[in-house]
Amino acid sequence: MTDVKTKKSKYQFKAETKKLLDILVHSLYTHKEIFLRELISNASDAMDKIRFESNKGTDFRDKDLPLEINVHADKDKKILYIEDAGIGMTRDELVKNIGTIAKSGSEEFLKLVAEHKEDANNIIGRFGIGFYSVFMVANKVVIKTQSFLKDEPAMKWESDGLGSYIIETLGEDKKRGTTIEIHLKDDMDEYTEKYRLESIVKKHSSFISYPVKVENEVVNTMQAIWREPKSAVKKEQYVEFYKFLTYDTDEPLEIIHTSVDAPIQFNALLFIPKRNMDVFGFNNREDYGLDLYVRRVLIQHKNKDLLPEYLSFVKGVVDSEDLPLNISRETLQENIIFTKIANSVTSQVLSHLTKMAEKKPDKYKDFWTAHGKYFKLGYTDYANQEKFMKLLRFNSSECKDENELVSLEDYVKRMKDKQKEIYYVLGNSRAAVNLDPHLEIFKRKGIEVLYLYEPLDEFVLTSLLKYKDYEFKSVDQADLKKVDKLKDIEEKKDEIEKLSKDDELQFSSLMSRIKEILGDKITEVKESTRLLNSPAVLVNPENSISSSMQKIMNITGQTQSIPKKIMEINKDHKLIRNLIKIYKNNPKDEYISTVAEQLYESALLLEGFLTDPHEMVNRINSLLENSSDWYTAVKKL
Ligand code: ADP
Ligand code: MG
Predict the structure, then answer these.
(1) 225-365 has which CATH code?
(2) Domain extents for the chain?
(3) Pairing relation of β-strands 138-146 and 177-184?
(4) I need a surface site. Which of 454, 484, 557, 606 has the fewest CB within 10 A?
(5) Residue 540 in contact with residue 547, Cβ under 8 Å?
(6) Is the CATH number 3.40.20.10 carried by domain 392-484?
(7) Is residue 356 classed as helix, strand or coil in its secondary structure?
(8) What is the architecture, at CATH level 2, of domain 2-218?
(9) Mind listing the pLDDT tens digit for each residue in 570-606?
(10) Which residues are near ligand 2, the ion (C-beta closer than 5 Å)?
(11) Which one of 37, 131, 175 would you pick to mutate in the ligand 1 pocket, going by the greatest count of ligand atoms within 8 A of its CB?
């Protein structure tokens, strides 16, 4: 229904809005005060927009209004008012902006609460959940707003936050901007108290870059600390600003405050959070970027081009004297000065991390644990590749446990005489990798191997190709001739008796027999030089892709087959020595087939390629049964 004179219309909230309102009103009992932070932040955004228009030279209503936020209350009527001189809203904007949830944050918030991943109360402080939070304290809200556009009438929006809202023309004069009229619920008297309002503003909104007045007194005093010399800013101020900026309740892990003068002037105040925000399960890839200021004026929130995506965990602000105030967000990327600033900010962050890695290795480790997963994606940043590679960390065979990390530089320093390659192995865990037969020869030679636990790690290394002059090589692709040339670190324990000439020949025939048994499943059977404790292993033919890449291709559906490999046999292993005896007695002994099949499937299993374990389990059961017969016979039971 639309009234002709006032153009009064009633609208229904969308389902998702109703859901959010319901949660806000019924399940949140603490932190209600953050509604004020949200409304002040909206007021500040609205004034950023008008300042932006002003810089562009747009003509608009009430040009000389002071840009400030007024908070005042009517104790008797129990109404709280929040007034700004921002950009205002038209009818359409009221419907579009207030009537629907636009913010990704609210959606994530909803999802999270719906999944019961976290108690809403715990995270609400970290989230900008927006305008609707006002209904935690209000039973009615009236918005009176005048758009900056000269031809637009002032509008009124009203709702009790239940199912619907009403919009009509205000019918009286209003200065540009928006006034939010909050009719407080019965038990919400505290929000008419001056001291209470002041303390909330100080706590949550002290870095708003416009004066915030409570009952006509300016409350927020700290502004633009990134413009201050480092020596003038206290740690507490940095921390407070960080919390204001990120909604994080924790202190930042690291603070980077720099001022660059040449060739381009800019100040940057950057933070590395202790945790990655993704720990909370949000897919917050949209929620990153640095705030860009020009001469203390906010040009863009969360600009995504000041830092490459792999550094998106960095939060903060950049402020430059050298960019024009009227620069538009659309043309920023093509601006040479902006590009130079962005490059410089990136290299500042990388240098800072480099210094941290050198001087505070424990802190660097914390950084790596929290953000390494994203940081690794920097392998595509060719301009900074050298710095980037020095910052990479891995677990390795030289580490005491899975928590220790090594750098590529550490690795290279420890390399064996004449070693020309950097070796790595991919596995699910340190325990699994430690048992990988491919590593036996590396252990024997005392060659360090990087332990990679995520497929991405291998992508990173294969894309980087090499560090300094040393190529990255997967252990299952390493050229063993090169490895074998390096000296053993220890004499083989219990030096096993050499095979007689005749047994050597028998071993050769045994290998042919095994190939016959396994047929097309393998390419060939070879004597192994890499094994120490295992009887057999599968290796990739030269120039084939590594096993982990094959697995990725299987997962992504690019191939579905079990790759054909070479089976290497360790002739010094007790089992193989026994097989030679059995073979000599009867080359067609069924036991040889059983063992060959089992060795093959065990190797497949270790490599992660065994898809159907039924046959294998049956075989093992029958082997166990037989061995129990032998065991009871030997023990005379
Ligand atoms: P967000 O601020 O994250 O966009 P909100 O729920 O806080 O989400 O606000 C929704 C939208 O309503 C804002 O994006 C803005 O367009 C509009 N809005 C809210 N408050 C104001 C205000 N005081 N002046 C102008 N527009 C406002
Ligand atoms: Mg908001």
Answers:
(1) 3.30.230.80
(2) 2-218, 225-365, 392-484, 501-635
(3) antiparallel
(4) 557
(5) yes
(6) no
(7) helix
(8) 2-Layer Sandwich (3.30)
(9) 999 999 999 999 999 999 999 999 999 999 999 888 8
(10) 42, 130
(11) 131
